[in-house]
Amino acid sequence: MNCLEGSRIQNSPSILRGLPKRAGQALAPAKPLTILPPERMPLPGWIWVAEFDSRSGARTADPDFNSRLYVCWFTDVANAIMAIWRLR
Question: Average pLDDT, stretch 49-69?
């Protein structure tokens, strides 16, 4: 992946530091937020976000209670993942 300024090696630490703020801007407000550091650097070139939503709460019958989980991950294999997704 090419960067407009700097390299992936130079930019990866800054990207990781900015993830909490960026996630707060892109995702629905919720806490807690946990970020697991990657096993290796630099970060891969693509970020993916998935939302898992449950309309029925655990241990409650309240119709207004639901839960949501957002998962974000980085990958270099965007084309392979998109090809698999299209096969579904």
Answer: 74
